[in-house]
C-alpha cells in the first residue's frame, strides 16, 4: 500500500479568540446544512463571507467522518462524540475493516474500561495509531500525524479528525473497499464531499514539478480516479434501481 501524503494546511479557528472548541451539537449542525455551497456555519455562501470568520476545518471534517463511522454496524458507534476519545469504538471499526490484521489478539490490548482515565485513553490511542501505521506498511510522509496525547487527555476534536482520516484510508484500501464505498454513497452529499476530500488528501501530494510523473504519483492518482469512478458508478446504479422501483409502483 503506497501513500505519499500531503500536508493539509486548512485550520478551523475563530479569529477573535484563537483556536475554537465546538460542542457536539455544533459539530453535527455544521455538517447538516442542505446547501453544499454554504459556509460551515450555514449562513454565508463561502467561508470568506462568513460573519464568524470561520475557515474550512478539521473539526468540520471530524463531524463528517463521525457520520461515516455510523455506517458501520458496530456497538457504540452511534454514541456521542465523547465516546470516540478512548479509542474503543475506533478499534472495533478497524477490526471490522480487516479482522485478519486487526485481529482479536490486537483488539484485546485495547482497554475498554478507561473511563475518565486519560492515561489509559492515550495508551489505547497509541496502540491504534501504531496498528494503523503498520497496516499501511510504509512510512507516511507529509501528513501531520494525530496527536493522540491531546486527543486522549484534552478530547481534541481536530486530532480525532486526523485519526479518523487514517482509519478512512484503511477502509478504502482494504479488500472490502467496495462495501465501504457503497455505504459512503448513502450519506448526504455534503458529507460525501468532505470524506472524498479526506481521501484525496491521503492519496495526493504537492510534489516538485520534475517528479509529478513518478511511478508513485501516477499510481496514487490512478487510485484516486478509480475510487471516484467507483463512487459515481455506485450512485448511478442506486439511481437506476430507484427509478425502476418507481416505474413498478406506477404500473
From TrEMBL:
Q: In this protein, which residues make up the domain named Calponin-homology (CH)?
A: 59-171
Q: Which PROSITE patterns match?
A: CH
Offer one example of a GO biological process linked to this entry: cytoskeleton-dependent intracellular transport
Which cellular component appears as one GO term in the record? microtubule
Q: Where on the tree of life does the source sit, at the highest rank?
A: Eukaryota
- According to the UniProt entry, the coiled-coil residues are 217-244
Location in the cell reads: Cytoplasm, Cytoskeleton; Endosome
The UniProt keyword set, sorted, is: Coiled coil, Cytoplasm, Cytoskeleton, Endocytosis, Endosome, Microtubule
Question: Pfam families under this entry?
Answer: HOOK_N
MF terms (GO), sorted A to Z: dynein light intermediate chain binding; microtubule binding
Question: Would you identify the family this protein belongs to, as annotated?
Answer: Belongs to the hook family.
State the PANTHER family in the record.
Answer: HOOK PROTEINS, PROTEIN HOOK
This protein's assembly is summarised as: Homodimer. Interacts with microtubules via its N-terminus.
Name of the protein: Protein hook
| Species annotation | Caerostris extrusa (Bark spider)
Q: Recall the taxonomic lineage recorded for the source organism.
A: Eukaryota, Metazoa, Ecdysozoa, Arthropoda, Chelicerata
